[in-house]
């Protein structure tokens, strides 16, 4: 073989490599690289949410128990959860015996009654999960972006119902839990929107696989956040928790008991349509987030049905864990538009609204799921 044969052979091999690479690129398509940095909430999202908030009536007072409207210190049916104990005074003729301060009577030997005042300025706290698996979406937007939109909608709805409510929010991203206070009323909602519009959507690195211990890390972080919330100077009277809740279990959800006993705690679960029903796909690359195993698979009819059944069992188990902790759970699709998301938030606050509100023509019946009652 002459010396000139080696460069020729090298050129042939390089040409074959280029052809194989071009075939692979044509088969899988070019990798998705957004032309600009994506944010959790866009300016168009905020404009749509603000327009809906201005035009729609607040549905939260429909079908809500009186003790849920103004959570406070008192827990009895007489005082309600919106009546805060202020002081005691000596019993006078005509006072209601239900207001009797029995402990003070036993201690002093003199009858006293409790005086209560209604709490008019509560506090609302939102938790928006935008980590890891939340950065997933097959239609319109990711679950993380929908969670941010839902948090903004819930804050707007709360400010519309009670303008004196303090608005605070915790953003849970890959770098940890970041809490901010925004003040009161619609001004606070605008500040929250400005924050979410500047927060980038942190996409996972190309080829990155979920860690096996991701669920354990999420549980530890969530329990630590609940403990900090309880130890704060003022505990919220309303809380809205937004995530996909794929990592929650009964033990972790039970950490919410002390907050749920003193405040109204609601939860929204964001799910992508593919997570509910796997479509008919060609041979695809799958990663098992539990074991970390990965490989190619051709999902036939039987495999898709097995996936759908497993996903439903998993979702029901997570919902049951939340219900046992006294948390009402409402499902929302990542592809739902702002109006459907508004209805979902309203349904979570007012369960009877889900029965009275009508689905818009042409909208799928599963877009907004009814709230799961405890």
Can you give me a brief rundown of this structure?
The chain is α/β, with parallel strands linked by helices. The protein is built from 13 helices and ten strands.
Structure overview:
With 374 residues, this protein is α/β, with parallel strands linked by helices. It has two domains: 43-62 and 121-356, Rossmann fold, CATH 3.40.50.410; 72-118, no CATH class. 41% of the residues lie in helices and 18% in strands. Strands 5-4-3-6-7-10 form a six-stranded mixed sheet, sandwiched between helices.
Mean pLDDT: 77
Overall form = elongated
Distance between the termini: 82 Å
The strand line-up of the biggest sheet is 5-4-3-6-7-10
CATH class of the largest domain: Alpha Beta
Main sheet record: 6 strands, mixed
Strand content: 15-25%
CATH fold name of the largest domain: Rossmann fold
Rg: 26 Å
As residue ranges, the low-confidence spans are 24-32, 59-75, 352-374
CATH architecture of the largest domain: 3-Layer(aba) Sandwich
Q: How many β-strand runs?
A: 10
**SS-based class:** alpha/beta
Q: What is the number of independent domains?
A: 2
Question: CATH superfamily of the largest domain, please?
Answer: von Willebrand factor, type A domain
Q: What percent of residues adopt helix (DSSP H or I)?
A: 40-55%
Q: Helices and strands, in N-to-C order?
A: HHHEHEEHEEHHEHHEHEEHEHH
Count of DSSP H/I helices: 13
């Amino acid at each position: 073989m002459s010396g000139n044969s080696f460069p020729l052979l090298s050129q042939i091999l390089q040409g074959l490599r280029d052809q194989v690479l071009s075939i692979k690129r044509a088969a899988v398509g070019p990798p998705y690289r957004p032309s600009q940095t994506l944010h959790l909430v866009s300016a168009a999202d905020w404009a749509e949410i603000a327009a809906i908030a201005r035009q729609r009536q607040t549905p939260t007072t429909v079908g809500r128990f009186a003790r849920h409207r103004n959570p406070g210190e008192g827990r009895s049916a007489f005082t309600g959860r919106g009546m805060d104990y202020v002081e005691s005074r000596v019993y006078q003729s005509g006072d209601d015996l239900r207001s009797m301060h029995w402990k003070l009577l036993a201690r002093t030997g003199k009858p006293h009654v409790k005086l209560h005042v209604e709490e008019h300025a509560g506090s609302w706290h939102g938790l928006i999960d935008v980590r890891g698996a939340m950065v997933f979406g097959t239609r319109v937007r990711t679950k993380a972006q929908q969670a941010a939109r839902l948090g903004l909608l819930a804050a707007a709805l709360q400010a519309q119902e009670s303008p004196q409510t303090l608005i605070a929010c915790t953003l849970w991203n890959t770098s940890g839990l970041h809490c901010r206070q925004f003040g009161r009323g619609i001004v606070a909602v605008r500040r929250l929107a400005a924050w979410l519009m500047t927060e980038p959507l942190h996409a996972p690195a190309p080829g990155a696989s979920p860690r096996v211990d991701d669920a354990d890390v999420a549980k530890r972080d969530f329990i630590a956040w609940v403990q900090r919330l309880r130890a704060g100077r003022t505990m919220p009277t309303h809380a809205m928790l937004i995530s996909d809740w794929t990592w929650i279990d009964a033990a972790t959800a039970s950490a919410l008991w002390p907050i749920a006993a003193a405040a109204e705690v609601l939860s929204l679960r964001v799910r992508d349509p593919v997570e509910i029903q796997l479509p008919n796909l060609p041979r695809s690359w799958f990663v098992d987030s539990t074991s970390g195993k990965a490989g190619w698979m051709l999902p036939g009819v039987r495999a898709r049905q097995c996936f759908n059944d497993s996903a439903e069992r998993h979702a029901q188990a997570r919902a049951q864990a939340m219900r046992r902790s006294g948390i009402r759970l409402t499902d929302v699709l990542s592809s739902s538009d702002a109006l459907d998301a508004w209805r979902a938030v309203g349904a979570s606050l007012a369960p009877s609204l889900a029965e009275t509100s009508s689905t818009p023509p042409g909208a799928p019946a599963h877009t907004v799921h009814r709230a799961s009652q405890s």
